[in-house]
Amino acid sequence: MVRGYVKRCFHERCTIISEDGKEIQSNGNYREGTIVEINDKDISVISDNQEDVLRFLNKLEENISLEGKGLFPAMEKAAKKIKASALIGRAAIVRFHNDADGIIGGIAISSVLPAFKQPQPSATYTERDAINDIGNSRLSFMPLAVFIDFGSSEESGSNYDILKAAGFEIIVIDHHPYDDNVAEKVLMVNSLKEGLPTDYTAGYLSVQIAKLLGKDLTDLGEIALAGDKSSLGYSEDAEKTALALDYAAFYSHYGSAFNIYRDVLKDKELRDALYRKAKEALEETKRHLKRIVKTKKVGEFTLYYFDAEAIGSKGEFPGSGKMATLLAEELKGENAIILATTGKMLSFRLSKKGSVDLSKLVDVLVEKVSFIVNGGGHANAASFRIKDPSYKDVAVEAVITELEEFLKKVDG
Ligand SMILES: [Mn+2]
Asked: 20: CA distance to ligand 1 center in Å?
Protein backbone atom coordinates (compact mmCIF):
# COMPACT_ATOMS: atom_id res chain seq x y z
CA MET A 1 0.00 0.00 0.00
CA VAL A 2 1.46 3.32 -1.09
CA ARG A 3 0.21 6.83 -1.27
CA GLY A 4 -0.18 8.70 -4.52
CA TYR A 5 -0.81 12.17 -5.88
CA VAL A 6 -3.48 12.75 -8.51
CA LYS A 7 -1.63 14.58 -11.25
CA ARG A 8 -4.50 14.85 -13.70
CA CYS A 9 -7.78 13.23 -14.68
CA PHE A 10 -9.36 13.31 -18.11
CA HIS A 11 -12.45 11.39 -19.23
CA GLU A 12 -12.40 9.21 -16.15
CA ARG A 13 -8.73 8.30 -16.70
CA CYS A 14 -6.32 9.52 -14.06
CA THR A 15 -2.55 9.79 -13.89
CA ILE A 16 -1.40 9.20 -10.34
CA ILE A 17 2.18 9.59 -9.12
CA SER A 18 3.03 7.13 -6.36
CA GLU A 19 5.30 8.16 -3.51
CA ASP A 20 8.05 5.97 -4.94
CA GLY A 21 7.97 7.98 -8.13
CA LYS A 22 6.01 5.68 -10.43
CA GLU A 23 3.34 6.85 -12.81
CA ILE A 24 0.11 4.89 -12.44
CA GLN A 25 -2.88 5.03 -14.80
CA SER A 26 -6.22 4.41 -13.21
CA ASN A 27 -9.92 4.70 -13.89
CA GLY A 28 -11.90 7.14 -11.83
CA ASN A 29 -12.40 10.78 -11.35
CA TYR A 30 -10.52 12.57 -8.59
CA ARG A 31 -9.65 16.16 -7.98
CA GLU A 32 -6.16 17.09 -9.16
CA GLY A 33 -3.78 17.47 -6.25
CA THR A 34 -5.61 14.93 -4.09
CA ILE A 35 -3.63 12.44 -2.04
CA VAL A 36 -4.90 8.90 -2.44
CA GLU A 37 -4.02 5.49 -1.07
CA ILE A 38 -3.28 2.82 -3.64
CA ASN A 39 -4.06 -0.73 -2.58
CA ASP A 40 -3.41 -3.10 -5.43
CA LYS A 41 -6.10 -1.88 -7.81
CA ASP A 42 -8.14 -0.11 -5.18
CA ILE A 43 -7.80 3.60 -4.76
CA SER A 44 -9.17 5.49 -1.79
CA VAL A 45 -9.08 9.21 -1.30
CA ILE A 46 -7.12 10.51 1.69
CA SER A 47 -7.39 14.29 1.45
CA ASP A 48 -6.24 17.34 -0.44
CA ASN A 49 -5.24 19.39 2.56
CA GLN A 50 -1.89 21.06 2.45
CA GLU A 51 -0.34 19.05 5.24
CA ASP A 52 -1.00 15.73 3.53
CA VAL A 53 0.26 17.04 0.22
CA LEU A 54 3.43 18.32 1.84
CA ARG A 55 4.00 15.02 3.63
CA PHE A 56 3.57 13.21 0.32
CA LEU A 57 5.99 15.57 -1.42
CA ASN A 58 8.66 15.06 1.22
CA LYS A 59 8.32 11.31 0.87
CA LEU A 60 8.50 11.55 -2.91
CA GLU A 61 11.62 13.72 -2.74
CA GLU A 62 13.29 11.25 -0.38
CA ASN A 63 12.57 8.42 -2.79
CA ILE A 64 14.09 10.08 -5.86
CA SER A 65 17.28 8.33 -6.87
CA LEU A 66 20.08 10.36 -8.41
CA GLU A 67 22.74 9.56 -10.98
CA GLY A 68 25.95 9.74 -9.01
CA LYS A 69 26.85 12.21 -6.28
CA GLY A 70 26.45 15.98 -6.13
CA LEU A 71 29.27 18.37 -5.26
CA PHE A 72 27.55 18.98 -1.90
CA PRO A 73 24.31 17.90 -0.15
CA ALA A 74 22.26 21.04 -0.96
CA MET A 75 22.76 20.28 -4.64
CA GLU A 76 21.33 16.77 -4.23
CA LYS A 77 18.42 18.16 -2.24
CA ALA A 78 17.64 20.67 -4.98
CA ALA A 79 17.86 17.96 -7.64
CA LYS A 80 15.38 15.80 -5.73
CA LYS A 81 12.99 18.68 -5.19
CA ILE A 82 13.13 19.60 -8.87
CA LYS A 83 12.55 16.02 -9.99
CA ALA A 84 9.64 15.51 -7.58
CA SER A 85 8.10 18.79 -8.74
CA ALA A 86 8.43 17.78 -12.38
CA LEU A 87 6.85 14.38 -11.66
CA ILE A 88 3.71 15.83 -10.11
CA GLY A 89 3.51 18.65 -12.65
CA ARG A 90 3.91 21.37 -10.06
CA ALA A 91 3.71 24.95 -11.33
CA ALA A 92 7.23 26.40 -11.57
CA ILE A 93 9.02 29.60 -12.47
CA VAL A 94 12.67 29.71 -13.50
CA ARG A 95 14.24 33.15 -13.40
CA PHE A 96 17.82 33.45 -14.56
CA HIS A 97 20.29 36.31 -14.77
CA ASN A 98 20.37 37.47 -18.37
CA ASP A 99 23.98 36.70 -19.23
CA ALA A 100 25.76 33.60 -20.57
CA ASP A 101 26.19 31.99 -17.13
CA GLY A 102 22.60 32.65 -16.09
CA ILE A 103 21.17 31.65 -19.47
CA ILE A 104 22.96 28.28 -19.37
CA GLY A 105 21.58 27.78 -15.87
CA GLY A 106 18.08 28.55 -17.11
CA ILE A 107 18.42 26.11 -19.99
CA ALA A 108 19.85 23.36 -17.79
CA ILE A 109 17.18 23.59 -15.09
CA SER A 110 14.28 23.93 -17.49
CA SER A 111 15.50 20.79 -19.28
CA VAL A 112 14.57 18.85 -16.14
CA LEU A 113 11.71 21.04 -14.90
CA PRO A 114 8.90 22.27 -17.15
CA ALA A 115 8.60 25.90 -16.07
CA PHE A 116 7.73 29.44 -16.99
CA LYS A 117 11.09 30.90 -18.00
CA GLN A 118 11.99 34.49 -17.32
CA PRO A 119 15.31 36.26 -17.92
CA GLN A 120 16.12 38.48 -14.95
CA PRO A 121 17.25 42.00 -15.89
CA SER A 122 18.49 43.09 -12.46
CA ALA A 123 20.84 41.50 -9.95
CA THR A 124 18.19 41.60 -7.24
CA TYR A 125 14.78 40.01 -6.90
CA THR A 126 12.55 43.05 -6.60
CA GLU A 127 9.10 43.76 -5.16
CA ARG A 128 7.86 44.03 -8.74
CA ASP A 129 9.24 40.57 -9.59
CA ALA A 130 7.54 39.06 -6.56
CA ILE A 131 4.15 40.59 -7.33
CA ASN A 132 4.39 39.46 -10.96
CA ASP A 133 5.36 35.92 -10.03
CA ILE A 134 2.48 35.68 -7.58
CA GLY A 135 0.08 37.03 -10.19
CA ASN A 136 1.29 34.54 -12.79
CA SER A 137 0.74 31.51 -10.61
CA ARG A 138 -2.03 32.43 -8.25
CA LEU A 139 -4.21 29.48 -9.23
CA SER A 140 -1.53 26.87 -8.57
CA PHE A 141 -0.85 25.08 -5.35
CA MET A 142 2.54 25.78 -3.75
CA PRO A 143 4.45 26.79 -6.88
CA LEU A 144 8.21 26.33 -7.08
CA ALA A 145 10.47 29.26 -7.92
CA VAL A 146 14.06 28.66 -9.03
CA PHE A 147 16.37 31.67 -9.22
CA ILE A 148 19.68 31.30 -11.01
CA ASP A 149 22.81 33.47 -10.88
CA PHE A 150 21.21 36.12 -8.64
CA GLY A 151 19.05 36.34 -5.57
CA SER A 152 21.36 35.53 -2.65
CA SER A 153 21.52 39.07 -1.34
CA GLU A 154 19.72 40.60 1.61
CA GLU A 155 17.80 42.89 -0.75
CA SER A 156 16.37 39.93 -2.66
CA GLY A 157 15.59 38.17 0.60
CA SER A 158 13.16 40.80 1.82
CA ASN A 159 10.98 40.07 -1.20
CA TYR A 160 11.07 36.32 -0.64
CA ASP A 161 8.84 36.94 2.37
CA ILE A 162 6.03 38.07 0.05
CA LEU A 163 6.60 35.11 -2.23
CA LYS A 164 6.59 32.62 0.60
CA ALA A 165 3.46 34.14 2.09
CA ALA A 166 1.79 33.36 -1.25
CA GLY A 167 2.77 29.69 -0.83
CA PHE A 168 5.91 29.52 -2.97
CA GLU A 169 8.89 27.34 -2.28
CA ILE A 170 12.20 28.84 -3.42
CA ILE A 171 15.49 27.41 -4.68
CA VAL A 172 18.40 29.80 -5.31
CA ILE A 173 21.33 28.55 -7.42
CA ASP A 174 24.08 31.13 -7.24
CA HIS A 175 27.75 31.96 -6.75
CA HIS A 176 27.47 35.53 -5.45
CA PRO A 177 27.99 36.47 -1.79
CA TYR A 178 24.97 35.35 0.19
CA ASP A 179 23.10 36.67 3.17
CA ASP A 180 22.67 34.29 6.13
CA ASN A 181 19.01 35.19 6.56
CA VAL A 182 18.31 34.44 2.92
CA ALA A 183 20.05 31.08 3.28
CA GLU A 184 17.47 30.21 5.94
CA LYS A 185 14.47 31.21 3.85
CA VAL A 186 15.30 29.27 0.70
CA LEU A 187 16.98 26.08 -0.43
CA MET A 188 20.31 27.64 -1.29
CA VAL A 189 22.73 26.03 -3.72
CA ASN A 190 25.63 28.47 -3.55
CA SER A 191 29.27 27.56 -4.08
CA LEU A 192 30.46 30.21 -1.62
CA LYS A 193 28.23 28.75 1.10
CA GLU A 194 29.96 25.39 0.61
CA GLY A 195 33.47 26.77 0.80
CA LEU A 196 33.97 26.55 -2.96
CA PRO A 197 35.27 29.51 -4.98
CA THR A 198 32.94 31.69 -7.02
CA ASP A 199 34.49 29.99 -10.10
CA TYR A 200 31.87 27.28 -9.61
CA THR A 201 29.39 29.49 -11.41
CA ALA A 202 25.60 29.31 -11.22
CA GLY A 203 25.24 27.88 -14.72
CA TYR A 204 27.86 25.25 -13.95
CA LEU A 205 26.05 24.26 -10.73
CA SER A 206 22.77 24.03 -12.66
CA VAL A 207 24.37 21.73 -15.22
CA GLN A 208 25.58 19.52 -12.35
CA ILE A 209 22.03 19.38 -10.95
CA ALA A 210 20.66 18.34 -14.35
CA LYS A 211 23.37 15.67 -14.51
CA LEU A 212 22.18 14.21 -11.18
CA LEU A 213 18.83 13.80 -12.91
CA GLY A 214 20.30 11.99 -15.90
CA LYS A 215 20.74 14.91 -18.31
CA ASP A 216 24.33 15.23 -19.45
CA LEU A 217 24.91 18.84 -20.56
CA THR A 218 28.66 18.99 -19.95
CA ASP A 219 29.28 21.15 -23.04
CA LEU A 220 26.84 23.74 -21.73
CA GLY A 221 28.65 23.80 -18.39
CA GLU A 222 31.77 25.01 -20.12
CA ILE A 223 29.88 27.86 -21.76
CA ALA A 224 28.67 29.00 -18.34
CA LEU A 225 32.25 28.92 -17.04
CA ALA A 226 33.45 30.88 -20.09
CA GLY A 227 30.73 33.48 -19.60
CA ASP A 228 32.04 34.33 -16.14
CA LYS A 229 35.72 33.73 -17.02
CA SER A 230 35.97 30.98 -14.44
CA SER A 231 39.39 29.59 -13.55
CA LEU A 232 37.96 26.06 -13.85
CA GLY A 233 38.75 26.40 -17.56
CA TYR A 234 36.86 26.17 -20.86
CA SER A 235 37.43 25.68 -24.56
CA GLU A 236 37.78 28.42 -27.15
CA ASP A 237 34.53 27.25 -28.69
CA ALA A 238 32.70 27.66 -25.37
CA GLU A 239 34.14 31.15 -25.09
CA LYS A 240 32.74 32.06 -28.51
CA THR A 241 29.29 30.76 -27.64
CA ALA A 242 29.31 32.61 -24.32
CA LEU A 243 30.08 35.88 -26.08
CA ALA A 244 27.36 35.24 -28.68
CA LEU A 245 24.86 34.60 -25.85
CA ASP A 246 25.90 37.77 -24.04
CA TYR A 247 25.46 39.69 -27.27
CA ALA A 248 22.00 38.21 -27.92
CA ALA A 249 21.03 38.89 -24.29
CA PHE A 250 22.06 42.52 -24.59
CA TYR A 251 19.74 43.15 -27.53
CA SER A 252 16.81 40.85 -26.87
CA HIS A 253 13.57 41.72 -25.15
CA TYR A 254 13.17 40.03 -21.84
CA GLY A 255 9.95 38.19 -22.59
CA SER A 256 10.89 36.48 -25.83
CA ALA A 257 14.56 35.76 -25.37
CA PHE A 258 14.59 32.15 -24.33
CA ASN A 259 14.08 30.56 -27.73
CA ILE A 260 16.76 32.75 -29.30
CA TYR A 261 19.23 31.46 -26.73
CA ARG A 262 18.41 27.89 -27.62
CA ASP A 263 18.86 28.75 -31.31
CA VAL A 264 22.28 30.22 -30.59
CA LEU A 265 23.31 26.92 -28.98
CA LYS A 266 21.93 24.81 -31.81
CA ASP A 267 22.76 26.87 -34.87
CA LYS A 268 26.47 27.36 -35.43
CA GLU A 269 25.98 29.81 -38.27
CA LEU A 270 23.84 32.09 -36.14
CA ARG A 271 26.26 31.76 -33.26
CA ASP A 272 29.24 32.69 -35.41
CA ALA A 273 27.43 35.68 -36.90
CA LEU A 274 26.61 37.01 -33.42
CA TYR A 275 30.10 36.23 -32.21
CA ARG A 276 31.68 38.21 -35.05
CA LYS A 277 29.44 41.24 -34.36
CA ALA A 278 30.27 41.09 -30.66
CA LYS A 279 33.99 40.70 -31.32
CA GLU A 280 33.99 43.68 -33.68
CA ALA A 281 32.26 45.85 -31.11
CA LEU A 282 34.76 44.76 -28.47
CA GLU A 283 37.77 45.52 -30.68
CA GLU A 284 36.36 48.96 -31.43
CA THR A 285 35.78 49.55 -27.73
CA LYS A 286 39.32 48.52 -26.92
CA ARG A 287 40.72 51.20 -29.25
CA HIS A 288 38.54 53.89 -27.65
CA LEU A 289 39.34 52.76 -24.13
CA LYS A 290 43.06 53.41 -24.65
CA ARG A 291 42.17 56.96 -25.58
CA ILE A 292 39.98 57.93 -22.63
CA VAL A 293 41.06 55.88 -19.62
CA LYS A 294 42.53 57.78 -16.67
CA THR A 295 44.76 56.37 -13.96
CA LYS A 296 45.47 57.05 -10.31
CA LYS A 297 47.94 55.26 -8.08
CA VAL A 298 46.29 54.09 -4.84
CA GLY A 299 48.57 52.15 -2.49
CA GLU A 300 49.91 49.10 -4.31
CA PHE A 301 47.19 49.39 -6.93
CA THR A 302 46.55 51.49 -9.99
CA LEU A 303 42.94 52.58 -10.41
CA TYR A 304 41.97 52.76 -14.08
CA TYR A 305 38.74 54.68 -14.52
CA PHE A 306 36.73 55.83 -17.50
CA ASP A 307 33.38 57.18 -18.54
CA ALA A 308 31.71 54.37 -20.49
CA GLU A 309 29.33 56.85 -22.10
CA ALA A 310 32.24 58.52 -23.86
CA ILE A 311 32.68 55.32 -25.92
CA GLY A 312 30.29 54.00 -28.53
CA SER A 313 26.64 54.91 -28.38
CA LYS A 314 24.24 54.61 -25.54
CA GLY A 315 22.30 51.37 -25.33
CA GLU A 316 24.68 49.50 -27.64
CA PHE A 317 26.86 46.50 -26.93
CA PRO A 318 29.10 46.28 -24.94
CA GLY A 319 27.63 47.59 -21.70
CA SER A 320 29.84 49.30 -19.15
CA GLY A 321 30.45 46.13 -17.14
CA LYS A 322 31.78 44.31 -20.16
CA MET A 323 33.96 47.30 -21.04
CA ALA A 324 35.50 47.08 -17.58
CA THR A 325 36.06 43.34 -18.03
CA LEU A 326 37.73 44.02 -21.36
CA LEU A 327 40.16 46.46 -19.82
CA ALA A 328 40.81 44.07 -16.92
CA GLU A 329 41.84 41.42 -19.45
CA GLU A 330 44.13 43.85 -21.24
CA LEU A 331 45.84 44.60 -17.92
CA LYS A 332 45.98 40.96 -16.83
CA GLY A 333 48.59 40.33 -14.17
CA GLU A 334 48.94 44.00 -13.30
CA ASN A 335 47.81 45.20 -9.90
CA ALA A 336 44.93 47.14 -11.40
CA ILE A 337 41.40 47.98 -10.28
CA ILE A 338 39.11 49.07 -13.09
CA LEU A 339 36.16 51.40 -12.60
CA ALA A 340 33.66 52.14 -15.37
CA THR A 341 31.05 54.81 -14.84
CA THR A 342 27.81 55.15 -16.73
CA GLY A 343 24.62 56.96 -15.71
CA LYS A 344 23.83 55.77 -12.22
CA MET A 345 25.92 52.59 -12.38
CA LEU A 346 29.60 52.21 -11.51
CA SER A 347 31.30 48.88 -12.13
CA PHE A 348 34.56 47.52 -10.69
CA ARG A 349 36.73 44.79 -12.13
CA LEU A 350 40.00 43.26 -11.00
CA SER A 351 42.85 42.45 -13.35
CA LYS A 352 44.55 40.09 -10.90
CA LYS A 353 41.98 37.77 -9.37
CA GLY A 354 41.98 37.62 -5.60
CA SER A 355 44.25 40.63 -5.08
CA VAL A 356 41.48 42.37 -3.13
CA ASP A 357 37.77 41.64 -2.43
CA LEU A 358 35.71 44.07 -4.50
CA SER A 359 32.37 43.07 -2.97
CA LYS A 360 33.75 44.08 0.45
CA LEU A 361 34.96 47.38 -0.99
CA VAL A 362 31.47 48.02 -2.36
CA ASP A 363 29.95 47.20 1.04
CA VAL A 364 32.17 49.87 2.61
CA LEU A 365 31.23 52.41 -0.07
CA VAL A 366 27.49 51.75 0.35
CA GLU A 367 27.83 52.14 4.10
CA LYS A 368 29.97 55.27 4.13
CA VAL A 369 28.98 57.35 1.12
CA SER A 370 25.52 58.87 1.43
CA PHE A 371 24.71 59.23 -2.28
CA ILE A 372 25.54 55.58 -3.04
CA VAL A 373 22.21 53.78 -3.01
CA ASN A 374 23.17 50.10 -3.17
CA GLY A 375 25.65 47.67 -4.62
CA GLY A 376 26.91 44.10 -4.71
CA GLY A 377 28.82 41.52 -6.70
CA HIS A 378 31.71 39.24 -6.01
CA ALA A 379 35.40 39.39 -5.20
CA ASN A 380 36.56 40.03 -8.77
CA ALA A 381 33.61 42.01 -10.13
CA ALA A 382 31.22 44.30 -8.27
CA SER A 383 29.13 47.37 -8.93
CA PHE A 384 27.14 50.05 -7.18
CA ARG A 385 24.46 52.59 -7.95
CA ILE A 386 24.41 56.30 -7.18
CA LYS A 387 21.37 58.50 -6.56
CA ASP A 388 21.81 60.58 -9.67
CA PRO A 389 24.23 60.61 -12.64
CA SER A 390 25.36 64.10 -11.57
CA TYR A 391 27.18 62.49 -8.62
CA LYS A 392 29.44 60.58 -10.98
CA ASP A 393 32.61 62.65 -10.57
CA VAL A 394 32.19 62.94 -6.81
CA ALA A 395 31.67 59.19 -6.73
CA VAL A 396 35.04 58.61 -8.39
CA GLU A 397 36.64 60.92 -5.80
CA ALA A 398 34.91 58.98 -3.02
CA VAL A 399 36.13 55.69 -4.47
CA ILE A 400 39.73 56.93 -4.44
CA THR A 401 39.49 58.10 -0.80
CA GLU A 402 37.73 54.99 0.46
CA LEU A 403 39.93 52.64 -1.54
CA GLU A 404 43.00 54.13 0.13
CA GLU A 405 41.49 53.51 3.59
CA PHE A 406 40.24 50.08 2.58
CA LEU A 407 43.64 48.91 1.33
CA LYS A 408 45.32 50.10 4.53
CA LYS A 409 42.88 48.04 6.58
CA VAL A 410 43.34 44.96 4.41
CA ASP A 411 47.12 45.24 4.83
CA GLY A 412 47.00 45.83 8.57
MN1 LIG B 1 27.32 34.19 -12.88
From this structure: 35
Q: Does domain 64-266 match CATH 2.40.50.840?
A: no
Amino acid at 212: L
DSSP-derived secondary structure letter, 319: P
Residue 284 CA to ligand 1 centre (angstroms): 25
Q: Which of 127, 188, 124, 120 is nearest to 162 (CA)?
A: 127
Taking the whole predicted model, whether its pTM rises above 0.90 is answered as yes
Query: How far is 155 from 164, CA to CA, in rounded Å?
Result: 15
Task: Please state which architecture CATH assigns to domain 279-411.
Answer: Roll (3.10)
Domain edges within the chain: 2-47, 64-266, 279-411
Say how many C-beta atoms besides its own lie within 10 A of residue 115's C-beta: 22
The model's pLDDT over 28-84, given as tens digits with 9 standing for 90+, comes to 999 999 999 998 878 999 888 889 999 999 999 999 999 999 999 999 999 999 999
225 exposed, middle or buried (CB, 10 Å; 0-12, 13-18, 19+)?
A: buried
Q: How far is the CA of 103 from the centre of ligand 1 (A)?
A: 9
Expressed in percent and rounded to 5, the helix, strand and coil fractions of the chain are 50, 25, 30
